[in-house]
Amino acid sequence: MFDWIKHINKEYPEFWKKYLSKFDHRSKRFITLNLEISGNDPQKDVIFSFGGIGVFNNAIVVGDSFEVIIPQYKYLHDNGLDNEFIIESKQDKLSENQAIEAFVNYIGNAVLVGHRIHHDVDLINEALEKLGCGRLKNEALDIEIMHRKLNDITDRQFSLDELAQFYKIPSADRMTAIDDAYIMALLFLKLKSRLGIN
Amino acid sequence: MRNSIAERIADFLKDFPPFNKLSYDDLLRIASDIRVVTLDKNQTLFKINDTLHDSFYVVGSGVVNLTVIADAEENLLNKCVPGDIFGLRPFFARNNYMMTAKAREDSIVYAIPIAAFRPFVAQNSAVLDFLLESFATNSRNPADKEVRGKLISDTHITTEPQPEMQFFQSLSYNKSPLTASTATLVKDIASKMTEHLSDCAIVTQGEIPLGILTDADLRSKIATGRFPVTIAVDRVMAAPVISVPENVSLAEAQLLLLKNNVTHLVVTVDGSDKSPLKGVISQHDLIAAQANNPGILIKEIKRSQHPRELKNVREKMAELIRSSLSKNIPMPHVANIASEINMGIIKRSVEIAILDLGSPPARFTWLAIGSQGRKEQLLLTDQDSMLVFEDVAAEKHKEVKDYFVRLAKRTVAVLEKVGYPPCPNGHIASNIVWCRSISDWVKQYQSWMTTPGEKSNEISPVFFDFELAFGESKLEEALLDVVYSNARRNSFFDYLGNDALRKPPPLSFFKKFNVEEEGEHRNKFDIKLKGIMPLVDGARLLALGQNLRGITNTYMRFKQLAMLEPKFSETYLSCAEAFLTLSKYRALEGMKYDSDGRYVNLEELSKIDKEKLKAALEPMRELEEIIKDKFRLTQFS
């Protein structure tokens, strides 16, 4: 509750100040966000990769995408996991600090959209704290909740696959985080028009 | 930074024109400017008179219909499938959209911003040509599809090809006519013409056309004996030729033919007979351009050399059926025409296969079975067929059978390219089980009819409706003899009768439609299984029982039965009518969704249509009673 007291008078990193200054007006930009993570415990688990794609004016903006891999050497080493595939892959790799900074610069004040997005946000907040920043200020929407609301279902959970099937989204070629983000974006467009969100 | 989604889209685009003319790097750059839009079923992307969008569209998945409104009616111009381009208007024109784009099913379209694409157009003239051609194309003729590749014009103003408009469309004609030098012998030219199925040959010097030799010349000058066949062609050819420039209109061409009293026009670069040859227009081209007329379609089938050409005919036929149904032309006529054309296509496919494989080592006959055998095929349905060849010496049997199996495989492949998928149950001649010698077939039929259900549970009743498609009619006669001499057996009728009655009832106790309860076609009505099949099966059973030979069509069977059995004539006649009504609804449904029309979406039918459909399902119950009564079917037989 007294979180703000801790942060009072604290000097934030430069990129974070810039991020905060973007929130004077409401954004019309949405970003569907998908993280590959090791688990849902914000204390222990880490982010492996980011995939994000922008949605603006009822269309997916292909150019507005973000994909970065974080080779979590320490985590993988501690847990005795093999990380060869990550190191070998041709995708852009950044250290966690750089990745978080790039990510914050990328999202700006956009509304985040995801599937069970609170887990993702928790993990990002954890990583931000390590950098001495505050918590994300973006609004967040969850497509699973949107779907449940649209169909008045309260007692069931829906995986991304089930949702894609329900809305007849072709979901071939799913390899990296951004492919799922793309499917989420298509789902979001459908849900958005049905729920009348602008 | 890398952009995997842009790569995915570039990978998709690179297979389709005009994108296949661009380098992959360019495509990537274009792809990263793309915006992806989802369309729900029946959602409109743009309407007539909407202001232009700043992008054009490529269908990524699903189907988008382009329509125009004419006479307060929505007319379908084109269906865009994945890879098709549409909405090119903003590229070339400033005025508002001239058509409506609406998703026929849930679709994803890629919007490519004009501003991002324009630089690539400027650099690459092939792309520009493609787009221009696409935009300017003005024909609905399915034959033009292959010329245009995968592009969808948006310049249409009217859909119905209006007769007067048609006369000003430009003609498609033979662009690589048969040519010969002046010294060639008439004999050689005649054999070349026969080989190429051409009715004329152009005599040229270099590329300049000097004269023309046509079928009529051969008839009047050679066959009459006035000149020997070994004469040089320049002595008998008609010269000079009547020449026209490229892109001559239909009306002009017709006038020229009449004025000069000739049968062919020679197309040259500048329209004079002193410039290089470009092609030849025959009377046939003029007729073909004018109408989708069944006679002409048959003629075109006979001239086809390639499955692709047959496919065009098939598509024209779909158009013909569509317009016939909307003009309320009686169903039996439509069905007749459709089955004649289908038969023609099957026949030509067998011929094409024979041309490929060499002449057959024994006489044979290709029988169409199932719906095609009954001449009830309106839509693109699957192919069912069987092949019967005459008995050969035992040591040659294997070799002969091998040939026919290969022939059947070939034919089936051709038909598949034309657009008939093979039967899912494998009832096709390329299956070695259904490609046999006549004595094997006789044995097969005998075992089916004397001990039905004993060896195999599946005697498919489709084998009892067959129709000669190609080959010896004697072999077909022999099979018919077997069927009708064995048809007196009770066990066979028991079997067929029970098979006919086993279909689920179409209407519930409360006169509601029994719709599909689950699966992909939920809440739709299975008109094939619950409406058409019981009538077909009933008609077959009764016709076999009455020894009605040579009639396989369900409608005709009921009509004949009504004459033979006045006691039940009322029921039979209402069954005949019901069959037509049901086929019509199936065809309409199929046309609408490009499917085989098996599942009818009741929600889209008007109340009157629903009542009509229900009325057509009524006589079935009476028919069942007759069958039960006649063949004394019990629960256990």
Summarize the structure.
By secondary structure, chain A is an alpha/beta fold.
* Strand order, largest beta sheet of chain A: 3-2-1-4-5
CATH class category of chain A: Alpha Beta
**Helix-strand makeup class of chain A:** alpha/beta
Overall pLDDT score of chain A: 83
Give helix % range of chain A. Answer: 40-55%
Query: What is the CATH domain class of the largest domain in chain B?
Result: Alpha Beta
Structure explained in plain terms:
Chain A has 198 residues and is of the alpha/beta class. Chain A has 9 helices and 5 strands; from the N terminus they run H-H-E-E-E-H-H-H-E-H-E-H-H-H. Chain A has one domain (28-195): 2-Layer Sandwich (Nucleotidyltransferase, domain 5), CATH 3.30.420.10. In chain A, helix 6 (117-130) links the parallel strand 4 (111-114) and strand 5 (140-142). In chain A, helix 7 packs parallel to helix 9. The mean pLDDT of chain A is 83. Chain B has 4 domains: 4-157, Jelly Rolls (Sandwich); 179-290, CBS-domain, CATH 3.10.580.10; 294-482, Beta Polymerase, domain 2, CATH 3.30.460.10; 491-630. Helices cover 47% and strands 15% of the residues of chain B. Classes of the chains: A alpha/beta (198), B alpha+beta (637). The interface between A and B is medium-sized, with 30 and 21 residues. Strand 3 of chain A pairs antiparallel with strand 1 (35-39) of chain B, so a sheet runs across the interface.
List the helices and strands and how they pair.
The complex is a heterodimer of chains A (about 200) and B (about 625).
Chain A: H1 3-7, H2 14-21, E1 30-37, E2 47-56, E3 59-69, H3 73-78, H4 84-88, H5 96-107, E4 111-114, H6 117-130, E5 140-142, H7 143-151, H8 160-166, H9 177-195
Parallel strand pairs in A: 1-4, 4-5
Antiparallel strand pairs in A: 1-2, 2-3
Chain B: H1 4-13, H2 24-33, E1 35-39, E2 44-46, E3 55-61, E4 64-70, E5 73-80, E6 85-86, H3 89-92, E7 100-103, E8 107-113, H4 114-123, H5 125-136, H6 145-148, H7 163-166, E9 179-181, H8 186-195, E10 200-205, E11 208-214, H9 215-223, H10 233-236, E12 243-245, H11 250-260, E13 264-268, E14 277-282, H12 283-290, H13 294-303, H14 307-326, H15 331-357, E15 364-369, H16 370-373, E16 385-389, H17 394-418, E17 435-437, H18 438-450, E18 466-471, H19 473-486, H20 490-501, E19 525-526, H21 527-545, H22 554-564, H23 569-593, E20 599-600, H24 607-617, H25 619-630
Helix pairs in contact in B: 1-2, 4-5, 11-12, 13-14, 13-15, 14-15, 14-17, 15-17, 18-19, 20-21, 21-22, 21-23, 21-25, 22-23, 23-24, 23-25
